Amino acid sequence: MATRTASKDTDVRHKAGRKGASEEAGAVAPAVLEAPVDPPPGGTDPELLIRASVLLADAALAAKQAGAEMTAATFSWRVGLDALKRPLWAMGALAATARALTNPGGLGFTANGGVVGETTRSAAALARLRSTPVAMAVDAFAMRIEAAAVEHPNLAAPLAKDLTDALVAGRRLDAIRAAGRLVDLMGLTRTLTTVSPVLMELLALIALLDENPANDDFAWVTLAGGVPDTDPFVGLPAGLIRYLNPGPGRAERTEPDAILERCLTRSSNEIVSYIDDIAALGNHGLALLRRIECADGTVRHVLLLPGTSFGRLRNSTPQDVVGAFDGMLRTDTTYTRAAKQLLLRSGVPVGSDLMVVGHSLGGITAMNLATDLDLVSTYRLTHIVTVGSPIDNKRPADPNTQVISLVNKYDVIPNLDGRGPSSPNDIPGHWVELAWLDDTYDYPLSHAPQSYSGTLRNAMPQHREHVNALIADYDGEIVGNQPYLLLDK
């Protein structure tokens, strides 16, 4: 039976590493660091597992590429011309290549690319013939899952392990039964929280080991450390989502309701207050632009961007589920266009210092704004602060923009960028990521902005002080709080 982790730990990183890795931080404020995670008795060091998974992933990708190149060479027009001149040689070469591409002791059904290669690959997938690159990829994912289980022992509990073992082995019916037992015992949200550290790996295994070759790219991109642009079940290109989110984006001034007004009267320029203000804005289309006369005499601006409304897939604002998927995969979205309209309509002077603070989809949008050359050429985007956002696959256009990422390691959403606790992928050395485990555990509570602000206020005051030290230039008198309603069109 899966059990809840009783202890709380924290992770501070100012340089590259995984969500959940323990590294000493050159922190501005003192930070409490978690003790190194020891492997269980008789277990393997998780760092060694991660390193081995990287080597195995590289080998799998290289073998897959070798199969593609052999397939392309075998069926090229040059080989066809040579076959006309030397038919016996051509027959021998074709037989040798076929043996190399199909021998289970070698590359094992590795043909891919082109009409012939893709037809052969599809036939092998339908026959459930596992190629050598696929076998190596599966082992690499299995190592990542085992490494994650050291820090997240719920993954090693019998029912959860039944699920992960079944997916690694490609036994879908057993996996469905194990998932059903987990949900019966723990409920849907706790089951999702339990598997969230390795969610991308599990989805990749589903894509790689089914009979549908169209969704394999999801697994290979995940293995290589990228963000897949197809779905893991059917293989539909994620680019189709832009047709569901085509709005030009619009921003209209609005007045705060009583709850927001009360929150803003108590607001201040520090991270917990910013997150509380985002929670008060809700997720029905509002955003807030704050004008501050700072202690050094400079007028600076802070843009607060809330996250996703999960009520419906689509609504009239950019803060919907469709917008969330669009924001993860693209940078020019309805939300970013609406936010740019907000800055334009508000009359923020060209060259002004600007900080953007966002929760969930709001944090994704903040990073998308940071990639916009026009925006960073118009304003000096000094800080991006994201709260529970999957942004590790994005990079600001201005290398001087300070990125601060706050992550509850029980939160499912930040792992959707493909860089979870078991991922070997890195973030830039100058980024600041503060990650922790707290008492919320279950998603969606672990993702709520109130949970993040509560943790920073009570359990992790050192992180609060750290972030406030990094954004200290924005200390000063609030001279304007203007809410805006953001709309698709």
Lateral arrangement of strands in the main beta sheet: 1-8-7-6-5-4-3-9-2
**pLDDT averaged over residues:** 84
Total of helices = 18
Q: Order of helices and strands, N to C?
A: EHHHHHHHHHHEHHEEHHEHHEEEHHE
User: Can you tell me the overall shape?
Assistant: elongated
Number of E strands = 9
Distance between the termini: 49 Å
What does this structure look like?
By secondary structure, the chain is an alpha/beta fold. It contains 18 helices and nine strands. The chain has helices at 46-74, 77-85, 87-102, 114-126, 132-151, 158-169, 172-186, 188-195, 199-209, 216-224, 258-265, 271-281, 321-329, 334-346, 361-370, 373-378, 449-459, 461-470, and strands at residues 10-13, 250-253, 286-294, 299-305, 353-359, 380-387, 402-408, 432-436, 476-487. A nine-stranded mixed β-sheet has the order 1-8-7-6-5-4-3-9-2. The longest helix has 29 residues, at 46-74.
Q: What topology emerges from the helices and strands here?
A:
Elements: E1 10-13, H1 46-74, H2 77-85, H3 87-102, H4 114-126, H5 132-151, H6 158-169, H7 172-186, H8 188-195, H9 199-209, H10 216-224, E2 250-253, H11 258-265, H12 271-281, E3 286-294, E4 299-305, H13 321-329, H14 334-346, E5 353-359, H15 361-370, H16 373-378, E6 380-387, E7 402-408, E8 432-436, H17 449-459, H18 461-470, E9 476-487
Helix pairs in contact: 1-3, 1-5, 2-3, 5-9, 6-7, 7-8, 9-10, 11-12, 12-17, 13-15, 14-15, 17-18
Which key terms come to mind for this protein?
alpha/beta; 9-stranded mixed β-sheet
